[in-house]
Amino acid sequence: MRRTRILAALGAAALLVGTAACGTDDESTSGSDNTGDTTSATEVEVFTWWTAGSEALGLEQLQGVLTEKYPDVEFINGGITQGGGSGKDLLQTRLAAGQPPDTFQVHAGKEAQDYIDAGQVEDVTDLYEKFGLNGVFPQDLIDMLTQDGKIYTIPSNVHRANVLWAAIPVLEAAGLPTDNAYFASVDDFIAALEKIKTATPDIVPLSVGGTWCQVHLLETILIAELGAEGYNGLFDGSTDWNGANVTTALTKFAKLMSFTNIDRDSFDWEPPMQMLLDGKAAFNVMGDWVPALLDSNDLVAGTDYLYAPSPGTEGIYDFLADSFSRTVGAPHKAGAEAWLDVISSVEGQTAFNKVKGSIPARTDIDLSSFSEYQQSAADSFKSDAIVGSIQHGAAATIQQGNATNDAVSKFTTSSMDADALAALQAALAAAYAG
Amino acid sequence: MTRFKRYVPPILLISPSLILMGIFVYYLIFGSVQLSTTSIHTFPQFTGARPHENVGIGNYLDLLGSEDFRHSLKNLLLYTVLFIVGTMFFGFLWAWLLDRRSKAEGIFRSLYLFPMAVSSVAAGVVWRWLLNANQGQRASGLNRLFQTVGLGFLENGWTTSVDFGIAAIAMPAIWQMSGYVMALFLAGFRGIPNELREAARVDGAKEWQIYRHVLFPQLSPVALSALIILGHMSLKVFDLIVSVTDYRVYTTKAPAVDMANYMNGGDYATAAAIGIILLLVVLVLIVPYLIHTAREDRQ
């Protein structure tokens, strides 16, 4: 009896010591990780949400370029399988815990603001010098990345958000022109949607996905109604969110939503785009990551589908860009630098963007081997006025983007009457105030 | 010395779990309470790069004053009531049917229990298709089924209704958990000695009288446990909502979803405040139960 008691006591003590030992063990390894080697570029941990489809293939390409340029740097994929939202949660957890990846993906522009303010990303202005990037990115883009004379991220690729996609067979059935899908104003677009609704009642005139797709649609309407300058002014206080022109834009947005599929809220962007492929919907406003899906369905621009700047936004490029940072306290600083060199280099941007379907942020890349759409987008990127996307983090901080999503969902799930519209406008004004 | 021998070994034995609980449950609750009284509404404030201050119960007042959070609470209440009533009803009904010793009891038992083995996220994706809001020509899922069997008047927008969208989320939840409640009640039925039924029959009780006066009263502890388990589960509803609709769809928002959304934007103080509010609501439910069982044990 006595012996069992002693044994039990010993067992308990051993357990305690065991757990305590585990605790210190973990701490010591993480500690050494943090202070880690800052000189040798043995590896680089890259955190992205490029984990599927053309994005994952593009990341593989970048990895290939890294191995070529820096054979002694080992690539470690710190990516996660969830989409952007949960990915950012995990990233923030790691940053807050002091176990950062060496470099991470962030939408270029305001979305990086929180990381900058929190002192989590380093100033990389010196790398722009070192890699000779100052002359090769468009000045509009550099201006949007610069804050108090410092640049914190380097863009790898650029997407355009304000693109209207149209299904030619559906346009034909409704008796609409099938050579050009550009509408000079939102009102013209509404008239065309009206026509589809009357001619082919079973067709959804404008397909749209869940909350974020609705915000995406709204921002293109705001651009059309306010113009590039007026739209940009929404984010520096020179355009009033409570103004009459914003009210008009919101009213037209509400009108457009009345032409959409009512099962929109349970979708990401692909199912609504699939409605175009299946001949069940006529139009969709979505960024230019769409062609990958269309190509995989063997559809050809001009015969099966049309693309054009979204209604009323010709000459304006609503951009979003992925960019990379160098993390403060990165265990492998030289590795991070190698990665930033790769993603900003001609080889890296060419290999990556060809696969992903976006365009290089550099303007000095030979595009002859890129797709026709990419070439036209790159031309516009050089000549158009550039504005930043709200939904995709170029013009709005994470919190502003979240508040916009909440307000828009509250609006589009309501009856969208005058009261709801006033509430939406007030919520938007509050989100972007100060 | 004997006292020492009597107390120390047991204390050593339970101390690992006590310490782990202390750190990972109670210390973290304390941490959340503390966080919820600060003005940490952005990442920079969380990492200390920007200053923050103590705001006392300010975050709680803001939340309760916000129309959107009250909408979430209203959704949670509606969901909880529907979920509990639904699962208790079907769980009890199935247990009662099975208790009559049907031949295929094994098959039915597995059939009813099976949905519980499906993860909420997988179930959510399937129900997302079933609860498609389209009606008429474009209908699919349940709405299409209603059309085919001639119940077209039942077609509706499911999760798209601002007032009752959350009720549509309760359907998959009821489907998933009814089997569990059935198992609880079935165990309850089987735990009642046969002699009691026989004695009642000898006394001339009719079949439904046996249920009404002999069996049901003995099931009340089971019913209470089921209520507690379902109640605290429903208050934490999150995975079903985000897989049937999404994080930011207004019609189906609930406090746990709001909490995730605030965290995503770096508003840890408000997220912590929601967590504490949920904890308090659960306590309101659990504490009377704990007192009740403690009293019974003493007796």
* Second-tier CATH architecture of the largest domain in chain A: 3-Layer(aba) Sandwich
The largest pleated sheet of chain A is described as: 6 strands, mixed
How do the helices and strands follow one another from N- to C-terminus of chain A?
Answer: HEHEHEHHHEEEEHHEHHHEHEEHHHEHH
CATH class of the largest domain in chain A: Alpha Beta
Question: How many extended strands of chain B?
Answer: 0
Number of helix segments of chain B? 14
The fold-level CATH name of chain B is MetI-like fold
What profile does the largest beta sheet of chain B have? none
Order of helices and strands of chain B: HHHHHHHHHHHHHH
| Uncertain segments of chain B | none
Would you give an account of this structure?
The complex is a heterodimer of chains A (434) and B (299). Chain A is α/β, with parallel strands linked by helices. Chain A has two domains: 43-159 and 320-376, D-Maltodextrin-Binding Protein, domain 2 (3-Layer(aba) Sandwich), CATH 3.40.190; 163-318 and 390-432, D-Maltodextrin-Binding Protein, domain 2 (3-Layer(aba) Sandwich). Chain A is built from 17 helices and twelve strands. Chain A has helices at 2-35, 53-69, 84-96, 113-117, 125-131, 139-145, 168-174, 186-199, 211-233, 244-257, 270-277, 290-296, 333-344, 346-356, 372-383, 398-412, 418-432, and strands spanning 43-47, 74-77, 103-107, 146-147, 150-151, 154-160, 163-167, 204-206, 281-285, 305-309, 316-324, 385-388. In chain A, the strands form three sheets. In chain A, strands 1, 2, 3, 6, 11 and 12 form a six-stranded mixed sheet that branches. In chain A, β4 and β5 form a beta hairpin. In chain A, α2 crosses α13 (333-344), α9 (211-233) packs antiparallel against α10 (244-257) and α16 (398-412) packs antiparallel against α17 (418-432). Chain A is globular. The relative contact order of chain A is 0.17. Chain B is mostly helical. Helices cover 75% and strands 0% of the residues of chain B. Chain B contains 14 helices and no strands. In chain B, α4 packs antiparallel against α11 (220-235), α8 (165-190) packs antiparallel against α11 and α13 (255-264) packs antiparallel against α14 (268-298). The longest helix of chain B is centred in the first third of the chain and has 35 residues, at 2-36. Chain B starts with a helix and ends with a helix. At the A-B interface, α1, α3, α4 and α16 of A face α1, α2 and α13 of B.
